[in-house]
Every structure is written in C-alpha cells, then in structure tokens.
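Following up on my earlier message about zinc ion. Here are the inputs again, as you asked, copied directly from the submission form:
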Amino acid sequence: MSGKTLIRGAYVLTGGPDGALRDAAVLVEGRVIAAVGPYAELKAAHPDSAELGGPHDLVLPGFVNTHGHFSEGLITGLAEGYTLWEWIHALIDPVVPHLDRASAHMGTMLSGIQMLRSGITTANDMFCSDPGAAEPLTPGVVAALDELNLRGVVSFGAGDTRVRSVTAQLEEHSALLEAAEASRLSTFRVGVGAVGGQSEELFAASVELAVGGGHGVHIHLQEVREEVTATFQRYGATPIAHCAQEGLFGAPTLAAHCVWVDRHDRRLLAEHNVGVAHNPVSNMILASGAAPVMEMRELGVNVGIGVDGAASNDGQDMLQAIKSAALLARVHAMQATAMTAREAFEMATIGGARALEMDDLIGSLEVGKAADVVVLDGSSPTLANIHDPYQAVVYVAGSREVKDVLVDGRPSVANGEVVTVDTVEIAERSRPMARDLVRKAGLAHLSELAR
Ligand SMILES: [Zn+2]
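Thanks, got it. Here's what our run produced:
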C-alpha cells in the first residue's frame, strides 16, 4: 500500500495516551501512522485516500506476542498430560535433532498464519533446536516471516546439553543475526534457552555476545519450581539472581514466564528493567502455575502476553491468550477485580512493546509509529453491540472477527484471510513434513498422522 489509507472504526483503541476514540480513524501513509483522530475530519482532509474498516468496526494496534517457538509449528496437538520437564523429555528432546531449515520455514509459516489471523503483528520468537549440522536452521524463520509480512524479534534458544560445542551454538546465533539484518521486518536477540540448559562457558559467551554486541536477550526464567531448585543447587542463586550477578541483564532482556518468582526475584526484575512475557495458556496446559502478574506490574515491571509455542499452547491465537490472562488472574487471586479488560488489552499491545523495548515503534496507534493495525469486524453478530470496546476485544471477539491486519503499512490479512501466502497450499505441503518429523523422532505411536 503505497498511498494513503484511512482505517475507520466505531472505536479506535489507540493503546496510547488518547485511549479510546469514538467515530475515529487512523491515517496510514506508506509504512507509518500519519494521523489519528475523528473520522469526519480526516476524511475531509484526505478525501482521496483508500478506506479500510467501517462505522461499526474496532480498530486496534497490532498485538505484540511476547513469547513463542516457531520450532514447534509441526508438532502441535501432540503429547498431553505432562508437566514442563516431562514434556520436554517426552516431546521436545526427541524432535529437536531432526529439525532442519525447511521445517523451520514450514513451522514458522503454520504458526505465523495463525498469529496473523488472531491479530498478532509482532512475534517475539525463540527457535529451540540443536544448531544445524548441515546448514544453520534459523534463517528459515526469518525468510518465512518476511514472506508472511509478520514483524519478528528472532532468537535461537541456545543450550549445550545435547550438542556440547559452544562454537556451534555461536555459529547459529551469527547466521540468524545475519539473516535478521538482511530482512525487512526482523530484529535479532540472543536466545538463552534457560540458565540450566547452558554450560558456564556458553552462558558467559551469551552474556558477552548480548552485552558486548549491543543485542537484546530472550530467555526462559523461573517457569517451574524444578528449574528454580536445580539452579539454586548448582549456583546457590535463583536463575534470576544468577542472571543479575553474571551481568546478563546488562542487555535489554525479555524473560518468559516468571511464574515461580519470590519478592526478591520480582524486585530484581524491576531493578534491571527486565520485561516479562506472561503465557497463561501454556502455563495452564503444563500445570506450571499462575504468574504473579499484577504483583510484578505494581513494581513497574513491563509485562506482555505470549501465546508460547505451538506444542505447549497448542494454538497460536492471541485473543485466546488475552482472555486467558484476564481469567487466570481472577482465579489466581479469587477476585473478580484482579485484572480488567483494559489492563489485559494494554498488556497485549503497548505493554508487550515496552517489555521488548520497542514502544517507540509499535504497541500503540500514535503518529510516527509503524502502521501495524488490526480491524475487528463490527458487522459480525459477535460484535454487533459494543457496550464497552475493551470488553468487546478481550472477552467477546474471536479470531473470526479479525478482518484486516496491516504490518508495516502492508496488508497481511484482508477480509479475514492471510493474503501474503497460499495458506491451503502450505497446509497441504506441511503434512508429509510433520509425518516424517514425528516418525524420525520415534513418536509415531502418539500421532494418528504418523502411525
Ligand atoms: Zn517458551
């Protein structure tokens, strides 16, 4: 979309200081937001602009998905009834050695299509695998994101418990960095699978690469109690305290989960400005617990929402994750006031952008920011009566209401369909790949597809 587009809604939920605007519109010019204001005024000033949305639609900033794993795109809906460490042992460890660049590309396509259809415009990903033996795998992720027109923050979740070469891990990081630098929409972070998954040598190299190289970090921290116990026994510190001591937080850090965090851990997160990705659906599926989201927010920690991987959620639907965040907070606190719809909405947009330190570019509909915009269909019976626009988004809307999605000013979804790739052809092509992967991993007994 090279010219001007006016995106109209009954409400524009800016996610910025302007809050919710009625009968308003967003003017997109090229890649950026050029104006936000009353529809009638913008229409009069820009009569020739193309139009999206309509008088009953909801216009929102694109959702910022703060945590996921494109490495799991082909093993979704497989193996249930496990807690995290059991699940890693039963499903992830057998699959990882058989991933390659083609499956990285396909997994990203499948997950990315679902993300776009649920209004995600930025995906913060950690590709968890062994480094590619024949060729680096993770450039496949970046290629797929560019094809989909989905903004990415990409990382390789390094860990040397299986492949013990630190050099091989660093080579995968640098191949991903190179791919991200050449891409239009992706930026690189240093991935650390978990403190417990790295040798001291690799962890020191990760700190050096991130802090010395000026890169952000994406890490799992304190998802389950076992992780806290094991790291405490090894280092005499919780994973969060260990990262603080070793200097990892000298780089902008996004920590996934932070479920098992005590007062001391929470204070360290706030002091070091560590952003947190809250993943309510996978935390419930794996029975990991309920993260103390509101306690962290009260300390000033920037908390965003993540869908997590396609094997632990197992869907990639942001609207489900946002609703789950609001509901889990209530069940956890046993209080109906624990988290409002507006708070959940803000975590999914500007909160996630702040957690990734990208709030100068994305997360709200403000002049000068990237044109990452979502339109929800107000002509759908589901959204026929909008009494409160935040509750309409968080509790009422489903991905079926996602009508248009723009990323960087370009349409990725139009009339509810991903328009950048042939989604039917991708689904078709993925089946033999998923079947082969599950067979090679020795998990065919769990899969009707691969049996
Ligand atoms: Zn994860």
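One observation from looking it over: The chain has a mean pLDDT of 97. Hope that helps, and feel free to reply on this thread.
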